[in-house]
Automatic annotation (TrEMBL), chain A:
Name of the protein in its database record: DUF6230 family protein
InterPro entries per UniProt: DUF6230 (IPR046198)
Organism: Fictibacillus fluitans
Keywords, sorted A to Z: Membrane, Transmembrane, Transmembrane helix
Transmembrane segments: 20-41
Superkingdom of this protein's organism: Bacteria
Automatic annotation (TrEMBL), chain B:
Name of the featured protein: DUF6114 domain-containing protein
Transmembrane portions of the chain: 12-30, 42-63, 70-97
UniProt entry keywords in alphabetical sequence: Membrane, Transmembrane, Transmembrane helix
Any Pfam family hit: DUF6114
Amino acid sequence: MGKTIELKTTINKGNLNRKVFWKAFASGMVVLAALLSFMGISGTAYAIPMAGVGNFYVEFDHLAGNGYTFYPKMGESSKEKSTPQGTNLIKDLTIDHLQLYKDFNISGDKWIRVKIAASKPVHISGLQQDASVINADAKFSNLALKEKQSTDWQKQFQQTASTIELNHAKIKTHYLFQEKIMMNGMKVTVERINKPAN
Amino acid sequence: MSVRQWKHERPFTGSLLTLLSGALILWVPLNLIVKAFLPGTASVIGILFGGMILLLGAMALFFPQFSKVFGIIIIFLSILSVIGALGGFLIGTLLGITGGSLMIAWNPSPPLQKEEDQIDAYNGYESAELVEAK
């Protein structure tokens, strides 16, 4: 009688314990939810990058800050790769009745506005704002405008002030970054509008 | 060793999701530094967390025996990355939690019996005590 030799390849398989997986996953989600709700309750969001949003408007009733620097630059907007702008840096500031909005053309003459508003004072540290138009009633202390010898044109002119105060401001902004922002009473709305802001 | 066998001997899916998560978490702070020239504390924290997650995801492929420890650290870092790197717009955090959980739940297979043991098992192995009793 002939002998049959059977060759088998065995794969050394690891296995997955589904019960442990769901336990670990649920624990992770609970901790994440706790962290997010803590951030929500304290109104704190760290390092909010809004790069790429471009050409949006910032409006507020009053701004008080210290450690102000301004210099010109060429930067990106939603329409152009490179457009003339000014960079505003403020170390610490408080803003009353802040409103940020961006208008989108969805089709033909239909527009929508995404608006972020804060009903309570907003505290920011480490602000960088690139803007092309600033309309406001301004007040500075220790204001200095100076020229510097440099081959980089962006470093040839600078404006600095120890404190800055702006009232009834409307700023055409292209880039906004805050190292830390406390936005109590925040409200985000998306609504239809007849025509965009200019 | 075939690719299939290699994949089955380590927490492959968990590692893959973790690598994706690390890449997403890294993307936000790197973008901040490159585009905004803002190498602040937040960006550094984001890069550190994203880099660590990437490294742990890769290490789990080469040291599968430590997958449970790696999994716990990955979940922890993914959640903390919300601060500083926005958790790769939260998608990175969710992928990290899933990848880490898969690593924790992964068990290596029991080691294969040695050839001698297999022969003993085939012939009928008698322990020393049993021989003595006889």
